[in-house]
Each structure stands twice: as C-alpha cells, then as structure tokens.
Design goal:
Strand order of the largest sheet: 1-9-8-5-4-2-3-13
Distance between the termini: 25 Å
Structural class: alpha/beta
Largest sheet: 8 strands, mixed
Strand content: 5-15%
Shape: globular
Mean pLDDT: 95
Helix content: 25-40%
Order of helices and strands: HHHEHEHEHEHEEEEEHEEHEHEHEH
Number of helices: 12
Amino acid sequence: MVDLRRQVAEIRNELDAAIGAVLDSGAFVRGPFVREFQERLGAYLADDRGTPHTLGVANGTDALQIAYQALGLGPGDEVIMPAFTFCATAEAAALLGAMPVFADIDPSTFNLDPAQVEAAITPRTKAIVPVHLFGQCADLAAFERIAGQHGLALIEDTAQAVGTQHIGPDGTRRWAGTVGDIGTVSFYPSKNLGAYGDGGALLSHSDALHERMRQTANHGAARKYYHTTIGVNSRLDGIQGAILGVHLRHLPAWTRARQLAAACYDAAFAPSAFVTRPARASYSTHVFHQYVVRVPADARDRLRDALKAQGIPSMVYYPVSLHEMPAFADARVTGSLAETERACREVLALPMHPWLSMADAERVADAVLSFFGERTLEATAGAAELIA
C-alpha cells in the first residue's frame, strides 16, 4: 500500500546526514531540530493571515487530546464528529469525559455532512471536528459558518491531509489544519508527511491557544518545574524532527506524484459500471493519502481476495463505523448514519504512494476491472491532464 523502503532509498543520503546531526548534537527530545521543523512547517502553511503556530507532539492522538484540553472540553460537553473515521477522533474526547456525537457523512466525499452537523447541535455542544478524510478537505466554509453562528470551536482533524488546500467561495486558498481554531496532524510513517516512528503536531493562528497547548503538552508547565494546569507529556523527538524536515522538502513533489497516480486510476475507472471513483470537491484540492473507490457491497470482499491472489494489496478504511463499536456504545448518534454504514460496506483503498508508476496503477486497475468483467482503456496515457 505504501512503499516506505523506496522512500528511504531515494533520500538516504539526506536522511543519514540529518540523523547524524542529531546524534552528534545529543538533542534527542525537542531541541533545535524540532524547533527548525516547526518553523519550516509553519512557513509552508502560511497564507495571507500569517504563519500559524506549530507545535510538535508525540503522535496524532495526543494532538487531538491536547486540542480538546486546551479548549476546556470535559464531562457534559458534546463534540460533533463523523463515525466514519479512525477511533482517535472520538477516543481523545471520551478520555476527557466529553461525549462524542456522531453525525452522518456526505456520500460523495466521505466527509462530515454540514447539514447533519447543524441538526445535531444542542446546548451542550462545544465543538465540531470535521475529519479531512483520505486527503481532501471537509466543507470548511460551511463549518466555519455553523461554528460562528452557534459559538462553537472548530477543530480540524488533518491527520490525512497535510498539504491539502481549502478553496473558499471567493477563491481564497487556505491550508487544511489552519482554518479552524486548531488543526491536529499525525506524522505516522504511512502519512503523506510521515516520520519513521510516531509524531504529531498542533496548528493554530491563536497566540492564546498555542500557549495553552504548549503548556498542556509539557506537563501543564509554563516553564520547567512551574506547573499551572494538569497536562500530559507529549514531545516530538529530535530524530523525528530532523527526518520530518527532510521529508517536508520533498512533500510538494510527492504530492504531485500521488495526484498523477490518482489521475491514472481515474482514467482507467472512468468507463466502469461497477467502480465509483473518488469525488473531487469544488472547495478542496486532493493529496490522495488514500485512493478509495466504491464497489458493490456484495463483491467488495471477494474483490479483495482476488487482488490478494495476484499480489496486489488493498485495505478497507473503515470496515466498522465508530457508532457500531462497543467502545463508543454510550456516544450520541444523530440520525440513522445510513451513508456511514453504506460506506463501510462499499469502500476499498487501492495502493497509493509517490512511487506508484503508471504501469503499477494500470496493473491494479486492470485487475479490479477484470474482476468485474471489464478492461482498462488506453486512455490512461493522458491521465496527467485530469489534474490540471
């Protein structure tokens, strides 16, 4: 699904130099390499509002919990989010005693449906957490409007979408993770911007929120041994900071390569009667953390088996929605979540990474289409034009 060994081989000299510099310095926790990466990531995500504060933490789940803590979420508070996502979005809220409230998704993008969110708001609602799933922004203009009207915090779960841009109604482009009050990021190795271990980050344009999150991540201390609140211990280490600094230099090229691979898939699947390609929202670019298609539910698992027999990996993100899991039996569910449940039955992620060649993509697409008695077209040669 992701060729990390190819990634290492391509930039091995840069990685060796970066890691060697950390070893020579002895700055293994936070330190100058983490600070430099934070500054560079902030500069990468800057827009006409300025440069967002960037705080490296231990992992993406910690980033979510620290964001919730910084906003003061706790028992009795409700947080609206999708049930079609990884458990961390809800888990971090539940650990603080807050109530995850699950709303349904837009069937075309798999992202949280603003209309469903608006219907779920109660006097106890304190925050909305749209997840930018699979590398495409949720409808942030709608969520900004809803949050503003109801006085709610807006937290962007950007674990899968670093480098994605939201396109506003006036054409203004803003980076995913920098639009709401707080953006949370995961640097898990398989992410578009991944470390070689765990890592995460918090983004915010608010000085006050940034300082609150900085203290929370450092045992609640404003300075060493002076603790002003209850916090956690969540730190990005120097080696991961140095590795991420190398990877950030390559992120634009890697994003373009993912988009080209996706365009090749798109061209191959365009005439299919059985495979539904990923939708492109008018309000977002797409960095294709995953390339996720829909296929008939009664064929999905048999297709996976057929691909596996040919040495082609695939994954189901996600086979079970959060509202159907015992861990979240006490969460509040709004509506039927019919689209969430349908997506769990129909989605299939195909191999996607920057080193996926056109030949690789055509082989995967041909195997999928052949399963349904269809064949790929030679039109994939013009795939690059599809992402202009």
